[in-house]
Amino acid sequence: MQQRELIISNYVKAYNNFDVEDMLKNLAPSVKFQNISNGDVDMELDGIAAFRSQAEQATELFERREQIIRSFKHTGNKTEIAIDYNAILAADLPNGLKKGDELNLKGHSIFTFDGDRIVGIMDIS
Questions:
Q1: pLDDT for 104 beyond 90
Q2: Are 122 and 107 in contact (CB under 8 A)?
Q3: Calpha distance 11→89 (Å, rounded)
Q4: Hey, CA dihedral for 116, 72, 67, 6, is it positive or negative?
Q5: Nearest-CA neighbor of 26 among 44, 14, 40, 39?
Q6: Does pTM top 0.85 for this prediction?
Q7: How far apart are CA 65 and CA 25, in angstroms?
Q8: Percent helix, strand, coil in the chain (nearest 5)?
Q9: Is the confidence at residue 37, as pLDDT, over 90?
Q10: Do 110 and 80 meet the contact criterion of CB atoms below 8 Å apart?
Q11: Residue 1: C-alpha distances to residues 20, 28, 94, 115 (Å)
């Protein structure tokens, strides 16, 4: 469990630092990603190439972004983290949010593991 927490902490640190390469370091080639917002799946990615492409595009959307891990919960091959999220937009978004707007969210992410590889990530806010 300690190894999983280290892997997830490193992933979040890389995310906060806009470091896509470090975000990918422990992802399986077949990683699956889902983003769920207000109960609706608004993004699904299949495979590390799709994940990389989306992660690189997302770096252009934020001036600053930070996830703070509040807790870890381990169940079987899954680890769930509770997070506080804060970001400042660097661009206008289609949903009406504007450049310079600040986002403050609480959510959680569920990481699915196969050994020391992340095979699934589900972000829920």
A1: yes
A2: no
A3: 21
A4: negative
A5: 14
A6: yes
A7: 20
A8: 25, 50, 25
A9: no
A10: yes
A11: 24, 18, 39, 11
